[in-house]
Task: inverse folding
């Protein structure tokens, strides 16, 4: 172990601890009111319904995006890491507008005027969100143009304007345009003979104004910048020929090093600039009067009534098609665009002036993350490869050793510090091959497009195992991918459940049924993250492997619900939603409050992605008023206001934003036995009431100690931790003078390396 790890039983410190964005969040219950359990007035006259005690969900999410953007501006981060955060910010906010702003517009159109717990109507939220987002986009643009672009140039990576190019380079780019780009372009003109073209969601386009004669009216045409060509086009030394300007394949070619004087560094121009400089080839024999880039964001909040749907697959396919033509919720437009362009776009797309965001280009900065493919280790974080978990590393290649390890003691894995392939994937592969395994069941919410997990389940079926898979077709933005996998699994004769009516199945669980000498054994995996090998390298998650019979029997009940229709409400060990989860969490919080009122030490430490449910927030307030010491590590959305006199003085709220997306959920209660829980559910109304979720208790004292250490490490981070103020804003915690820098994520990486060395050194 490293020196960063506290001794056994170390007391947790009283402080501290981000879309794709981002696991991508799904739309929650729109009422925002939570369950109706509990009286409106709590202890000591505390009014649970008073809006002053609740922050707005949408504005809280934008606060998180500010923290992501701050990483792009933070000079302590390597330059290309800052570019990555600039791209992540774009992706996250794109999704926020599609889902959250789209949902608000839907409510407004339907005449909904119900207020959220913070007292806002949908229209008031919509107005506040647009006003809050506008300066954020301005900061993003300024960060790129005034800071990152000059810094990249200083490092030998030039993102050039066309004015920076030599005549020879322009000629070579023109040849590249004619041979490789022009054939893929389709100009769409809007005039009496042509209807206004469909503008696809998040596509980058050029608005081109032309006329045949000086006295003619301006004609609008849309040219879509192709997504199947690299956005950053390499510019070679003058005279090298057109190959120097033609990217090699979909990925950005590697650099030979920016300090190589002969190579002249890495130099790029934007694809839209290449198109713009050669519009005469696309629009011959007319005058190109003006051009500008623009981008449209469409609502993703379209759906069907599941209760009346005759076929769930057909319903999902209809939803995917409807999204293509959904309402526009945002128009991004280059700030020097011709007034006629703005007039046409706002009129034809039906957007309000407040939904127009005029920005200095370039737009769609998400594409700039391709710069991370450059061979510039001096501008990146040190690479990280997940390490074998010690328990699985000790197991031999014999598949039965995996089950022997789990049967001996529970195993807790921590991704991406521990390898997903060497733990979760190995568990499923061992089950697929082991002749003593009778059945495998798994719940898949999101998985990779080339999922080895799904291929392993298919292999298991071919090996004669009974295989049942719950594939959630309603996983937002993964519907199409999951639909393809569901069809593939069914074609292999596997029992496939497509979801549950009225709920999304968000639980991340699998169950292996194995015939052994002393009877049938159940081996369970309960995780906080998806069965997705790609995100397992970028998301921080936990997973519990256990042979606990009660946990296994609970999963048997849960999987029977997926393929049947009867939902159990009582479970032996698991906290399951909908079922016993909300009631159990409320009881756990209230128990700490009662202990505090009796003068006993009481403490709650909870780590999650989001704290949104008003009832849970009210329970935490009352626990704080009773004297419970509460530390919350909440990645993004948090309705609770810490530090309110007489209400939340004992509550601290933190957020950690780093190279990995903090995604695990851990709940710790000092006066409960076992007192520690991990699983898929956040404290959100949608997770507690409107999704199928599972949270497992941690019984093993060694694993509880491990969770104590994880939480303590997060709560002492002074590099990537932010502290929340009562008004919902955040301040980043920085090392004091002479204080060592403590990064939780770095500590976890170093500990995983040190543990592996201890086991491999002679």
Result:
């Amino acid at each position: 172990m490293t020196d960063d790890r506290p001794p056994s039983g170390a007391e947790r410190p009283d402080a501290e601890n981000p879309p794709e964005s981002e696991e991508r969040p799904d739309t929650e219950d729109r009422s925002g009111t939570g369950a109706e359990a509990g009286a409106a007035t709590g202890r000591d006259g505390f009014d649970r319904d008073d809006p002053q005690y609740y922050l707005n969900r949408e504005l809280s999410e934008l606060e998180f995006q500010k923290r992501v953007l701050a990483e792009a501006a933070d000079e302590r981060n390597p330059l290309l890491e800052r570019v990555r955060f600039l791209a992540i910010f774009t992706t996250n906010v794109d999704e926020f507008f599609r889902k959250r702003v789209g949902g608000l517009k839907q409510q407004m159109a339907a005449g909904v005027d119900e207020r959220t717990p913070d007292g806002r109507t949908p229209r008031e939220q919509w107005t506040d969100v647009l006003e809050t987002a506008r300066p954020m986009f301005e900061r993003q643009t300024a960060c790129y143009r005034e800071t990152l672009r000059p810094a990249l140039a200083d490092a030998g990576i030039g993102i050039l304007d066309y004015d920076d190019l030599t005549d020879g380079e322009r000629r070579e780019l023109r040849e590249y345009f004619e041979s490789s780009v022009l054939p893929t372009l389709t100009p769409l003109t809007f005039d009496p003979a042509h209807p206004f073209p469909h503008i696809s969601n998040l596509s980058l386009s050029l608005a081109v104004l032309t006329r045949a004669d000086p006295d003619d009216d301006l004609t609008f045409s849309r040219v879509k910048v192709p997504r199947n060509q690299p956005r950053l086009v390499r510019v070679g030394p003058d005279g090298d020929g057109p190959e120097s300007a033609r990217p090699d394949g979909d990925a950005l070619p590697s650099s030979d090093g920016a300090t190589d004087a002969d190579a002249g560094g890495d130099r790029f121009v934007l694809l839209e600039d290449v198109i713009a400089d050669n519009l005469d080839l696309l629009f011959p024999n007319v005058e190109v009067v003006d051009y500008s880039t623009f981008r449209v964001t469409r609502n993703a909040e379209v759906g069907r009534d599941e209760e009346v749907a005759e076929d769930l697959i057909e319903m999902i396919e209809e939803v995917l098609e409807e999204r293509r033509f959904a309402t526009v919720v945002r128009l991004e437009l280059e700030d020097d665009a011709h007034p006629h362009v703005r007039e046409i776009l706002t009129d034809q797309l039906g957007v309000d002036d407040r939904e127009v965001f005029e920005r200095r280009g370039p737009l769609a900065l998400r594409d700039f993350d391709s710069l991370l493919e450059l061979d510039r280790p001096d501008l990146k974080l040190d690479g990280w490869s997940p390490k074998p978990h010690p328990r699985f590393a000790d197991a031999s290649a014999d598949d039965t050793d995996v089950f022997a390890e789990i049967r001996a003691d529970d195993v807790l894995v921590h991704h991406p510090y521990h390898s997903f392939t060497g733990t979760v994937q190995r568990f499923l592969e061992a089950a697929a091959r082991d002749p003593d395994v009778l059945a495998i069941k798994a719940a898949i919410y999101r998985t990779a497009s080339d999922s080895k997990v799904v291929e392993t389940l298919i292999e298991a079926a071919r090996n004669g195992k009974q295989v049942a898979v719950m594939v959630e077709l309603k996983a937002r933005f993964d519907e199409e991918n999951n639909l393809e996998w569901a069809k593939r699994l069914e074609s292999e004769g596997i029992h496939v459940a497509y979801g549950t009516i009225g709920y999304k199945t968000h639980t991340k669980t699998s169950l292996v049924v194995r015939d052994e000498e002393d009877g049938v054994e159940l081996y369970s995996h309960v995780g906080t993250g998806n069965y997705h090998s790609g995100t397992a390298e970028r998301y921080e998650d936990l997973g519990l492997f256990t042979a606990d019979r009660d946990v296994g029997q609970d999963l048997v009940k849960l999987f029977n619900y997926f393929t049947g229709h009867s939902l159990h409400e009582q479970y032996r060990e698991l906290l399951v939603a909908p079922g016993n989860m909300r009631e159990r969490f409320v009881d756990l919080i209230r128990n700490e409050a009662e202990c505090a009122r009796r003068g006993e030490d009481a403490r709650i430490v909870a780590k999650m992605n989001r704290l949104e449910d008003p009832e849970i927030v009210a329970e935490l307030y009352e626990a704080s008023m009773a004297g419970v010491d509460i530390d919350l590590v909440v990645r993004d959305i948090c309705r609770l206001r810490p530090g309110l006199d007489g209400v939340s003085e004992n509550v601290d709220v933190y957020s950690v934003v780093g190279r990995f997306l903090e995604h695990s959920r851990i709940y710790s209660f000092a006066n409960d036995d076992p007192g520690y829980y991990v699983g898929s559910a956040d404290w959100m109304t949608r997770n507690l009431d409107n999704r199928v979720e599972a949270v497992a208790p941690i019984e093993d004292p060694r694993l509880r100690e491990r969770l104590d250490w994880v939480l303590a490490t997060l709560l002492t981070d002074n590099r990537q931790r932010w502290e929340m103020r009562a008004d919902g804003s955040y301040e980043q915690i920085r090392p004091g003078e002479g204080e060592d820098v403590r990064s939780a994520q770095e500590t976890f990486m170093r500990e995983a390396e040190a543990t592996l060395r201890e086991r491999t050194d002679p």
